[in-house]
Amino acid sequence: MKITKYVLPVAGLGTRFLPATKAIPKEMLTVVDKPLIQYIVEEAVEAGAEQIILVTHASKRALEDHFDKMPELERVLEEKGKQQLLEKVRSIIPEHVEVIAVRQPEPLGLGHAVLCAAPVVGDAPFAVMLPDVLIHNSPGCMAQLVELFETQGSSIIGVENVAREEVNKYGIVSLQPDEQGALQRMSGVVEKPTPEQAPSTLSVVGRYILTPKVMELLRETESGAGGEIQLTDAIATLITQEPVYAYTFKGSSYDCGHKMGFVQANLEYALRDPEISAELEQQIQRLAK
Ligand code: G1P
């Protein structure tokens, strides 16, 4: 079974990054020279996405525009002979991938946002990616999850270890006893527990492959942590009905929903960029003195 539909919830107002996000969507903030959303879409396309479903809000049209064709701009670049830039603009999204926008009419939580994509997702397993989190690896995190899904067919959630004092920022999973290796069967998941309540320090990182059953469960899920309809709560119910796996992916993650992670992503992606890495290293050495 192939995973072709990728749900990207992007309706949030990005209040953690005000004033930067007053007039532009937080997913359009750039890490070096690309907006966050483009990294996420590239990871989805690498994994086999054919439909990118943006669950969006009226104030965030720039996201749809970013993936739309812009003939005027292409013409200007062509006339000026700026071939490299033209390629960059044209390759934002491959021809065979469709970007679909659905609206989340009210900010009722991540679970509700995913449910808004149900009419497009239909009765097939699908992926959810949270654009706040960048993951650097080849193959990407989503491609790793897809490969596992193709062999075992159950829901899989990307996880990583965090410090115990950080658990209250994330969904935290618990595992069945005696599970070993990178792919482990889950026994539960809780949204943003306190360090004392957390069943482990394995955090949900924002990459999911889910069976369509989760849509049914979301319809019945009541508001939970923060007064919002949580995807985590629907997954906790799913675990009681089907096997659900946690997968410790390969790669480095950057939580760009928080200032520190965003700055770190910019620094590390810049250090990997051959155009500027040498000069940046010199600047860092100068600052460190
Ligand atoms: C969301 C999810 C949480 C997950 C996190 C990853 O929380 O609800 O389970 O661990 O993303 O970034 P948010 O960051 O939207 O508060």
3D architecture notes:
- By secondary structure, the chain is an alpha/beta fold.
- It has a single domain, classed as Spore Coat Polysaccharide Biosynthesis Protein SpsA, Chain A, CATH 3.90.550.10.
- The chain contains 11 helices and 13 strands.
- The chain has helices spanning 36-47, 61-66, 71-79, 83-90, 110-116, 118-121, 141-152, 213-220, 231-239, 259-271, 277-288, and strands at 5-9, 30-31, 34-35, 51-56, 98-103, 126-129, 133-136, 155-161, 171-175, 183-191, 202-210, 244-248, 252-255.
- Helix 1 packs parallel to helix 7, helix 5 packs across helix 9 and helix 8 (213-220) packs across helix 9.
- The longest helix is centred in the last third of the chain and has 13 residues, at 259-271.
- Bound molecules: 1-O-phosphono-alpha-D-glucopyranose.
- Residues 110, 130, 132-133, 170-171, 191, 203-206, 230, 232, 255, 257 line the site of 1-O-phosphono-alpha-D-glucopyranose (G1P).
- The site of 1-O-phosphono-alpha-D-glucopyranose has 15 residues, from strand 11.
Give me a quick take on this structure.
Helices cover 35% and strands 24% of the residues. The protein has 289 residues and is of the alpha/beta class.
